[in-house]
Each structure stands twice: as structure tokens, then as C-alpha cells.
From TrEMBL, chain A:
One Gene Ontology MF term: FAD binding
Name listed for the protein in its UniProt record: Carbon monoxide dehydrogenase medium chain
Keywords (A to Z) from UniProt: FAD, Flavoprotein, Oxidoreductase
PANTHER family referenced in this protein's UniProt entry, alphabetically: XANTHINE DEHYDROGENASE SUBUNIT C-RELATED
Domain FAD-binding PCMH-type: 1-167
Enzyme Commission (EC) number: 1.2.5.3
Pfam families listed in its UniProt record: FAD_binding_5
Superkingdom classification of source: Bacteria
Automatic annotation (TrEMBL), chain B:
Record protein name field: Carbon monoxide dehydrogenase large chain
Entry GO MF terms: carbon-monoxide oxygenase activity; iron ion binding
Entries under InterPro entries matching the protein: Ald_Oxase/Xan_DH_a/b (IPR000674), Ald_Oxase/Xan_DH_a/b_sf (IPR036856), Ald_Oxase/xanthine_DH-like (IPR016208), AldOxase/xan_DH_MoCoBD1 (IPR008274), AldOxase/xan_DH_MoCoBD2 (IPR046867), AldOxase/xan_DH_Mopterin-bd_sf (IPR037165)
Cross-referenced Pfam families: Ald_Xan_dh_C (PF01315), MoCoBD_1 (PF02738), MoCoBD_2 (PF20256)
SMART domains: Ald_Xan_dh_C
Organism of provenance: Roseinatronobacter ekhonensis
The entry's keywords: Molybdenum, Oxidoreductase
Superkingdom, natural source: Bacteria
The Aldehyde oxidase/xanthine dehydrogenase a/b hammerhead domain, residue ranges: 21-139
Signal sequence region: none
PANTHER family cross-referenced by the UniProt entry: ALDEHYDE OXIDASE 1-RELATED, XANTHINE DEHYDROGENASE
Length: 263, 790
């Protein structure tokens, strides 16, 4: 790790001001940023901690929407979303281990947009709105490929607004070593139709599986996916699985998510 | 009933209190006054020529004391190899120099080029980034077979090729073996890989070098399984420091699994630099550094063939193995694929003719050496996979095929065609025990239940033999070992009767402080709490060879028994004097000496006090004091064996394998502490299952390590295991050591991989995937799925 300055502002305005500084970077749970700094892969001049800003923490329901503060930990989401949005709570409960869940946050995960991360599937699979210090971004516009998002320099996520589905589930097949998603599917059913988001599989990061959405919108059952197969084109191939294997898992995990969501 | 803390008691491990409360004293806990820190700048390319090193900017940086390069070690030797293998033509292996810091070339990712010593670790690391190393990249040698092709790039320019040795065993039998294959009714063959593993002990390696200019003496604190071996190798061969000026201390060590046997460059560096700088020098490996600097394990590619007669008796076995040595020869590397592997190729069977060929190859990868089991897992995996395949091809029951070819209980001692003599064993008994404990009879019902859920269930078995308790010194000397493999013990009885035992074995998780105390407590009949076991410091223990190869109780324990017997003999003479009787009439029981047939007695502390306050004492015949040293050199290896059963459930949609049951029925001979033995088996099974399903050390074709962190190297975790059934009720005591013990440290890692793979293949075959005859380890979901859909 290299030397850096550390500030812990108490308001979003102060945080944004601090981030205007030279080589400043927001720090949330630190579960991604700190390890990369320890490996000397990342060298911010100053870290602006977001976890001391009260308005960034918490889970609350506003009508049919669940609003989660960006600095809310995975553990808190697993606990506090369980009643209103069990599919999301279950997803949060499968991230990492207890230490990671009690430090890592939804805002950090969405800002990082790791192609194998879990939350991007929920955000895209619900058609969430990413709220920042300066605007609101639809999930469909927010995710722009591996580790790439619509966020501008110095822009911070303040909250995420997720439409609560009638039924939903996340089916995760873990990469054996890291236990991030090797391939995982988030399926959410709304009156307006079904959304299916896949993470872990694609070289382009999280994506929606349009054919599955169409099939499930007319018949929300695993059988509706019969005969559907995802192409292996632009799927990730690495030590843990070939592109063909991941493409195959897209189908398996989507079915399992549908079955788990019930009707 | 065993005594609370004597032989046979599951005494709780006394060392655990300090470990579990965070009070162990590990090498990294040692911080000396004026200590400095070293950071090694390591190669990030697999193969390259060093054209120049400019460290001037680094040397000018804050806190930097000095930057060392190979030039600073002109007068030092290379890191020595402790075993010389002779090839099939009678020629010695090719043995390249292994410098402390890279000389002229870098030969693997992680090869240290410069060492930066600074006031703080961060300063050393910062300065290392300011060093400019000009490296001309060379073609990396990664694949073993390609490395042996004519004209292949050489890892070592001064060697004739990348072949370390081409070993044939038993070379004289080669023609007879081939003849047997020509005459065979059936021949079954299999090509397989024994996957490369990283040991990953919980505690990474650490070294602290210290120098006392007034006494011109050195101390090295290091994470070692064998401090005396390090003192010998480093003192005599690398730094030219005589033993009396060099103390090596290995305090609490957090696991080794073989990787902490070897003498490493970082140890020599810290020892040497402490003298140059006149300040202590400390190195603490990071986990990432451990992946590219700790010796790796396994990495064999083998073709194995079995010949059978018309009645399915095994008539001959033949193998050809390529064994990866990595870039340099680690301390015991050459012996692993040869003497610790070839000699085990008979397995539990009466195969009369065996020929083993091993080609050891240099590549641009981290050196490979012993890892839990060392050669024996490789042998067992080949044999037990092949026997299973043979049963399938011949359409016979794999259990019956094994039983038919087992060495029978009445046939011991049994001379194998691969040099060793098994003293005892009863393979039929362990097999029966395992089948009973696994409810083999109920398997079909369980399989049907899995099938109803869309899952494939399979049952796999493996029966292993291993050779532990290394080893008779004269024998290993003939085989090329450059060391003896005895063990030492000193038993110092104190005036009030408490006992301090100094052992040359080293404990790094095995629980010796408990087990060894139980042995002495049983022999003398005193409370184990009055006995303290000391190890790990060359300044107070006699020259010992350390802990590996499941040798500690069989060899180190035997030395303790020998020394304790000397103590008892002398104590009886003292007691005889005090009781005015003849020594032959003195009996020792429950810590009391009595004259046979009388009620005259003196207790233990009465005798020990007399030894040190010899007022009423036979001074003309007996020296005062009560302290004895013994060295024990075993007359043979010990041969633990056992039957392992594994029941798996395979998800055909994803290829994921779950282990539902694992049953281990081992014959370890006599057992001192059953609980510790169970723990050892559990640990071994976790690592064996890890190898079979999870762990894999992978290089790409550029020699870059793809699995260089826990993000990609899959360590086994608690939820990968569902509990084990472990049994050691089948006992055929070792015939040649005083405790009748065999060793249990590696068995789990040796017997489990073939059991797991056999179970997976069984599940696939029962579900109709009969084209799948083998899947290489680790059987990851993607590999299994690819095999099913290939
Ligand atoms: C052992 C381990 C296992 C894990 N397993 C999983 C898993 O199974 N699934 C999974 O999804 N993740 C997993 N993670 C990642 C974990 O969920 C991280 O917490 C998450 O990816 C990042 O969140 P954080 O709060 O820790 O962010 P940080 O590490 O603090 O920050 C990450 C990045 O986001 C930026 N950032 C943070 N907050 C904001 C914000 N509000 N606005 C703008 N930018 C911001 C930071 O500057 C940084 O670039 C694992 C991590 C570890 C260490």
C-alpha cells in the first residue's frame, strides 16, 4: 500500500467537495478497494469515506419501491429487505463471507461493476434506478461493460431504487475459488413482464437475456425456457469454465431462479 | 482402560490453549532490537537474461540500507540439493546451481533478483520499485514434453538439456516386464495427470537473521519443519558457517505440509545480510509471494499399464512418468518421483514384475518438492485408478479384483519387486471394515433416491499403502540421500522428578507436545503434566532430522523411548542402591520403584532427588544426575495402509460433485492418541479431497501463474466436506519399532484422491456415461460437464 490521505465527511455535499481534490477516490466498504491498494494496483491520493454519512445508510420502502442507501452493507440488506423483497435479501446473503457482508456495500458493488458481482444482476434485473449526487440513471443505461459504468469522475451513488417484484429469485453458481458468480441469474416478475439479468458469464458484464424474458413473460415457469439456449459468443473463458460451459449455465441458472421464485 | 494421559488416551492437545487464544509464538512474532526489513524484487517473467540492474535511485531513497544482488554472494554457495538420483545408465542427475539471488538469468516468475533492506518494510518495497532491471525475455519452457524435444530452449544454459534424470526402476527387470506384457491375457492402460498443488500452510514463511559480532555467531529464526537440517545445509554448503557459530530456531510453526522442509534462499539471505549490515534482517512472505516462492507439490504426467492373466491375476505393471522439477532442484525434489514413488508401485498387490520409468524435467516454473504424501499419493492415484479401470473393462467387481490380488495377511513380511519389504498389514481387514462402515449394502437404495432427484450417485474405493518413518540411513545413503534419517532425543530428568524432553522432531500442528509426553508418562508412570516437550532450537536439542514423511512418532518417538529406557535403567540402579536390593529385582510401576516380592519401595521423585543430591548414592559405580540422549535409526520404513470409501452425488446439469460420505479405515499400527490421529486423518482427507476436486496450480504457456491467489486457487473449505467416518481399529503393529507405530500424517492425502475420482467415474457409468474412462484432477464442475458433453 502507498501512503494516502483519509477523510470521513458527514454529508454528501462534503463528500462531493472532497472528491474534487487531486486523485481522490470514494471508499465505501473497502472490500474491493483496500485489497487492490494492498496489492499496489491502486494508489489514490486520498480516500473519502462514505460510511459516516447517515443519509447513505438504510433500507426503506416507498410504495412499490425499495430504496437502499449506497453505503448500506450486504448484511443489512440481507436482514432489512427480507420482508419486502426476499429475492434481494437472499442475494445479499450469498455475497462473500460474513466479514465481507458486514463491510461491503451495495453502492461500492454497483460502482465497481465487477463482471462476476451479484448486485448488478439485481439492479438490472429489477430495472432499478441508480441515484447519484447529481442525477438518476436507469440500470439499463448504467452498466456499460466490465468494470465500466455511466458514473462520471467524482460522481457518487447515493442510493438505489429497486421496483419490488411480485416474485423474484437469484440463482448463483459459484466460481469455486473466489465464490463470486461463475454464472448467476436474477429473475424478477412484474405485472408488466419478466426481467432476467445474467452476471458472471459475459465479457461485457451483466446483461439481460431478452429471449428468456419474452418466454417467461408469457409463461412464468421453468418449462417455458425449454429449447432456449444462450449463445457462447463473448462469454468469459478462464480456468474455471469455458465459454460453452458458461452459456450452458445461463440456461440452468435461469431455470433454477424461476423455479425458486415460484409463481 | 488407558490412563488419562498415557498411551491410548485421547488427551486434549496441551498446545491448543496457546494457539487458540492467539498466544502462539511464531517467527513473525519475533522482533529484535534494531531490526531491518528486506523485500525481494522478484522476476515477473518466466525466463529471461539479466542485462543490467540499476539500483542507484533505490539506494538513495529514505531508509534504504542497501540493495543486494547476486554479485554480493560471489563467495557463497548455491542452495544445495539433498539427494542425488542416479539415472538408468548409472550417471548422476544433472544438478544446476541454485543461487541465492538470480545470476545472469531469471528462471521462473518469482525468482528473486534483488534484495532491498530498509528501516521499514514499506520503504524497502517502495525502493524496490525504483530499481531498474533490464531483462531480455527468453522463450519460456513450460510444458514438460516440449522441454525434452531436441533443440528446446534450455532453462540452464550450462546443462546438456532440460532432463534432470531418466530413471529406470528396476532397470534389470525391464525386459521381463515387457515379456509379461507380451504374454498377458489383458492389458489395461491409463494416462493421467497428478495436478500441481501449492501447499498453502496457514502461516506464510518468515525468516529473521541476527548476528552477534562479539561472538561472531549467527542466529536464524525461521519457519522450518527441521531446524537442524537448515543449519547443516545453510552453514556447511551456502554460507560456510560452522555449526557452533550458527543457531537455527524454528519456534511455533503454523503448518508446513512439506513446504517448510527445504532450505530457501530467503533464509540464507537474512542470515548473511545480518552480518553485513550488523543489524537483524527480517523477511515475512506475503500470501502472493508464497504462491511464487514456496516449493510446489506433485505435477506428474504418467502413462501406466497393467498386465493380467486370464484369471485376472496381476502379472506386471509398467509406468512412464514425467515429473516436473521446476527451475531449480529444491532440497528433496529428486527423491520424490523416484524413491518415494517407484518403491510404492506394488501398492497392496502381489504384482510380481514392475518397471517404473521417471523423467525429471526442468521448466521455468517454481521448484517442485514434497507435499503431504510426497510421491506416495502419485503412486496410489495411478494404481488405484488403473485397478478400477481394469475392473470396469473386465466386467468384474472392483472390490473383488482388489481382494484377489491383495497380499494376504499370512504373506508378511512381503518382499515387493520394487525393493521394499512390507513388515505387516491386513488389507482384507481394512477393506471389510470400510465396506461395513460405509453401509455399502445400502448404496443401491441411496442411489435410487438420488436418481429420483435427478442426481447421479456413485461409490468409489481406493486401498493405499505408504512408506513412512523415513528412513534407514544406510539404505537411503545407497539411494543417494546426502543425509542420515535417524532421529534424536534427550531426556533430562530434573531433581524433583519433572522431566524435560528435547526432541529432534518438530511440531507444526501435529501435537507432539501432547503425544510425546503421553509416551514418556506411560513408560515411567508419572503425570504427563510433569513432562515438557522441547523442540525447534538447535542450541538445546541434539542433532535431529525433523518432521516430514509421517516420521515423528515412528522415528522421533522411538528415540524418546530409547532415551527413556536408558533413564529407567539408571533410575533402577539408583533405586536398587536406596532399597539395598539388586537392580534386576527392581520393578517400576506407576512411578514407583519396588523390590519384587516385597513391600519395599521408593517413588520416582525419591530416586531423582538422589540422583542430584547424591549423599546416599553409589558414586563409585554411577555418575550423579539423570539425563540421557539417544539416537534412533530405523531398520525399515513403516507401512500404514487403509481402505477409503467415497460416496458422491453429481449434478448432471452443472457437473458439480458433492461428497456425501467419506469413510477411512486405516491401519496405523498402535495408536498413542486416537483424537490426534483422527485430526491428522481429517486434515489429510481435506487436502486429498482438495486435490481431487478443487486445487490446481496452473501456468499459462508464458509461464505466468494463473492461479496465484485465492481468487483462482481453490482451497478446500469446511462446507466442501460433510464429515468423515474415520476408523483405526484394524491394527497390525509395526514389527521393528518399539511402539509398534506406523505414522498417520499423510494417509488421508494419499488414499483419498483416487477414491473420490473412482466415485465420480462410478456415478457417471451407472448413469450411462460409459465413454468417460477418466477425468483429470481437479474434477471441477466445468471439467465434469465437458466430459459429459464432449
Ligand atoms: C472475499 C471476498 C468475497 C467476495 N464475494 C463477493 C460475491 O460473492 N459477490 C459479489 O458481488 N461481491 C463479492 N465481493 C465484493 C464485495 O461485495 C465488495 O464489497 C463490493 O464489490 C465493493 O463494495 P465496497 O463497499 O466494499 O466498495 P469499496 O471497495 O469501498 O469500493 C469499490 C469501488 O467503488 C467505488 N465506490 C464505492 N462506493 C461508491 C459510491 N457510493 N459511489 C461511487 N463510487 C463508489 C470506490 O471508489 C471503488 O472504486 C467479495 C469481496 C471479497 C473481499
Amino acid at each position: 500500500m502507498y501512503n494516502f490521505d483519509f477523510v470521513k465527511p458527514g454529508s454528501v455535499a462534503d463528500a462531493v467537495a472532497a472528491l474534487a481534490g487531486e486523485e481522490a477516490q470514494p471508499l465505501s466498504g473497502g472490500q474491493t478497494l483496500i485489497p487492490s491498494m494492498k496489492a499496489r494496483l491502486n494508489a489514490p491520493g486520498s480516500l473519502v469515506s462514505l460510511t459516516g454519512i447517515p443519509e447513505l445508510v438504510g433500507v426503506c420502502r416507498e410504495g412499490d419501491t425499495l430504496v437502499i442507501g449506497a453505503a448500506t452493507t450486504h448484511a443489512q440488506v440481507a436482514r432489512d429487505a427480507a420482508g419486502d423483497f426476499p429475492g434481494l435479501a437472499a442475494l445479499a446473503g450469498q455475497i462473500g463471507d460474513p466479514a465481507v457482508r458486514n463491510k461491503g456495500t451495495i453502492g461500492g458493488s454497483l460502482a465497481n461493476n465487477d463482471p462476476s458481482a451479484c448486485y448488478p444482476a439485481a439492479a438490472l434485473g429489477t430495472g432499478a434506478t441508480i441515484v447519484t449526487d447529481r442525477r438518476e440513471i436507469a440500470a439499463d443505461d448504467y452498466f456499460q461493460g466490465m468494470f465500466t459504468t455511466a458514473l462520471e469522475e467524482g460522481e457518487i451513488i447515493t442510493s438505489v431504487r429497486l421496483p419490488i417484484p411480485q416474485a423474484s429469485a437469484y440463482a448463483k453458481f459459484v466460481q469455486p475459488a473466489s465464490r463470486f458468480a461463475l454464472t448467476a441469474a436474477f429473475v424478477a416478475r412484474y405485472a408488466s413482464g419478466v426481467r432476467v439479468a445474467i452476471t458472471g458469464a459475459s465479457e461485457n458484464g451483466v446483461f439481460r437475456w431478452a429471449e428468456a424474458e419474452a418466454a417467461l413473460s408469457s409463461d412464468f415457469s421453468a418449462n417455458a425456457l425449454d429449447g432456449l439456449a444462450h449463445s457462447a459468443h463473448e462469454m468469459i473463458a478462464d480456468l474455471h469454465g469455458t465459454a460453452a460451459y458458461r452459456a450452458h449455465l445461463v440456461g440452468v441458472m435461469t431455470r433454477r431462479a424461476v423455479a425458486a421464485a415460484g409463481s | 482402560m488407558p490412563k488419562d494421559d498415557g498411551i491410548g488416551a485421547s488427551t486434549k492437545r496441551r498446545e491448543d490453549t496457546r494457539f487458540l487464544t492467539g498466544n502462539g509464538k511464531y517467527t513473525d512474532d519475533i522482533n529484535l532490537r534494531g531490526q531491518t526489513y528486506v523485500h525481494f524484487l522478484r522476476s515477473d517473467v518466466a525466463h529471461g537474461r539479466i542485462k543490467g540492474i540499476d539500483s542507484s535511485a533505490a539506494e538513495a531513497m529514505d531508509g534504504v540500507l542497501r540493495v543486494f544482488t547476486a554479485a554480493d554472494f560471489d563467495s557463497a554457495g548455491g542452495i544445495p540439493c539433498g539427494w542425488q538420483v542416479t539415472d538408468k545408465h548409472g550417471q548422476p542427475m544433472q544438478e544446476p546451481k541454485h543461487p541465492i539471488l538470480a545470476e545472469g538469468k531469471v528462471r521462473h516468475v518469482g525468482d528473486p533478483i534483488c534484495a532491498v533492506v530498509a528501516e521499514t518494510y514499506a520503504q524497502a518495497r517502495d525502493a524496490a520499485e525504483a530499481i531498474e532491471v533490464d531483462i531480455e525475455e527468453l522463450e519460456p519452457v513450460v510444458d514438460m514434453k516440449a522441454a525434452l524435444k531436441d533443440g528446446a530452449t534450455k532453462v540452464h544454459d550450462d546443462l546438456s538439456s532440460n532432463l534432470c534424470y531418466d530413471w529406470g526402476f528396476v532397470e534389470e527387470n525391464k525386459d521381463a516386464v515387457n515379456e509379461a506384457f507380451n504374454n498377458a491375457a489383458h492389458v489395461v492402460s491409463l494416462e493421467l495427470t497428478n495436478n500441481r498443488l501449492v501447499a498453502n500452510p496457514m502461516e506464510p514463511r518468515v525468516a529473521v537473521g541476527d548476528y552477534d559480532p562479539w561472538g561472531d555467531s549467527h542466529t536464524l529464526y525461521t519457519t522450518s519443519q527441521n531446524p537442524h537440517v537448515i543449519r547443516l545445509l545453510m552453514g556447511a554448503f551456502v554460507l560456510n558457517i560452522p555449526e557452533h557459530k550458527l543457531r537455527v530456531v524454528a519456534p511455533d510453526v503454523g503448518g508446513g505440509f512439506g513446504s517448510k522442509i527445504y532450505h530457501y534462499a530467503e533464509e540464507a539471505f537474512c542470515t548473511y545480510a545480518a552480518k553485513v549490515l550488523k543489524r537483524p534482517v527480517k523477511w515475512t512472505s506475503s500470501r502472493s509471494e508464497a504462491f511464487i516462492s514456496d516449493a510446489h507439490g506433485r505435477d506428474h504426467k504418467t502413462k501406466i499399464e497393467l498386465a493380467l492373466d486370464a484369471d485376472h491375476n496381476f502379472t506386471a505393471l509398467r509406468t512412464e512418468t514425467y515429473a516436473n522439477m521446476g527451475a531449480y532442484l529444491s532440497t528433496f525434489a529428486p527423491s520424490i518421483p523416484t524413491w518415494l514413488h517407484g518403491t510404492l508401485m506394488a501398492g497392496n498387490y502381489k504384482t510380481p514384475l514392475i518397471y517404473v520409468n521417471v523423467k525429471a524435467v526442468f521448466t521455468n516454473t517454481v521448484p517442485v518438492d514434497a507435499y503431504r504424501g510426497a510421491g506416495r499419493p502419485e503412486a496410489t492415484f495411478q494404481i488405484e485408478r488403473l485397478v478400477d479401470k481394469a475392473a470396469r473393462e473386465l466386467g468384474v467387481d472392483p472390490i473383488e479384483l482388489r481382494r484377489q490380488n491383495f497380499i494376504k495377511p499370512e504373506e508378511f513380511p512381503y518382499q515387493t519387486p520394487v525393493a521394499v519389504v512390507y513388515d505387516t498389514g491386513n488389507y482384507h481387514a481394512t477393506m471389510d471394515k470400510m465396506l461395513e462402515l460405509s453401509d455399502y449394502a445400502g448404496f443401491e437404495a441411496r442411489r435410487a433416491e438420488s436418481a429420483a432427484r435427478g442426481k447421479l450417485r456413485g461409490f468409489g474405493i481406493a486401498h493405499y499403502i505408504e512408506a513412512c518413518g523415513i528412513a534407514p540411513s544406510n539404505l537411503v545413503g545407497q539411494l543417494g540421500a546426502r543425509a542420515g534419517l535417524y532421529e534424536s532425543a534427550s531426556v533430562r530428568v530434573n531433581a524433583t522428578g519433572s522431566i524435560s524432553v528435547y526432541t529432534g522432531s518438530h511440531s507444526h500442528g501435529q501435537g507432539h507436545e501432547t503425544t510425546f509426553a503421553q509416551v514418556v508418562a506411560e513408560m515411567i508412570g508419572v503425570d504427563a503434566n510433569s513432562i515438557e516437550i522441547h523442540h525447534g532450537d538447535t542450541s538445546n536439542t541434539p542433532m535431529g532430522m525433523g518432521t516430514y514423511g509421517s516420521r515423528s512418532l515412528a522415528v522421533g518417538g522411538s528415540a524418546i523411548v530409547k532415551a527413556t529406557n536408558k533413564i529407567i535403567d539408571k533410575a533402577k540402579k539408583i533405586a536398587a542402591h536406596l532399597l539395598e536390593a539388586a537392580p534386576e529385582d527392581i520393578e517400576l510401576k506407576d512411578g514407583k520403584f519396588s523390590v519384587a516380592g516385597t513391600d519395599k519401595s521408593v517413588d520416582w521423585s525419591g530416586v531423582t532427588l538422589a540422583a542430584y543430591v547424591p549423599h546416599n548414592y553409589p558414586l563409585e559405580e554411577l555418575e550423579p544426575g539423570l539425563e540421557e540422549t539417544a539416537f534412533y535409526d530405523p531398520s525399515n520404513f513403516t507401512y500404514p495402509s487403509g481402505a477409503y470409501g467415497c460416496e458422491v452425488e453429481l449434478d448432471p446439469e452443472t457437473g458439480k460433485i458433492d461428497i456425501l460420505r467419506f469413510i477411512a479405515a486405516d491401519d496405523f499400527g498402535n495408536i498413542v492418541n486416537p483424537m490426534i490421529v483422527e485430526g491428522q486423518v481429517h486434515g489429510g482427507l481435506a487436502q486429498g479431497i482438495g486435490q481431487a476436486l478443487l486445487e490446481n496450480c496452473v501456468y499459462d504457456d508464458q509461464g505466468q501463474l494463473l492461479s496465484g491467489s485465492y481468487m483462482d486457487y481453490t482451497m478446500p473449505r469446511a462446507d466442501d466436506m460433510r464429515g468423515f467416518t474415520v476408523d483405526h481399529s484394524c491394527v497390525t503393529p509395526c514389527t521393528h519399532n518399539p511402539l509398534g507405530v506406523k505414522g498417520c500424517g499423510e494417509a488421508g492425502a494419499i488414499g483419498s484422491p483416487p477414491a473420490v475420482v473412482n466415485a465420480a467415474i462410478d456415478a457417471l457409468h451407472r448413469a450411462g456415461h460409459t465413454h468417460i474412462t477418466h477425468i483429470d484432477m481437479p474434477l471441477t464442475p466445468s471439467r465434469v460437464w465437458a466430459a459429459m458433453n464432449g
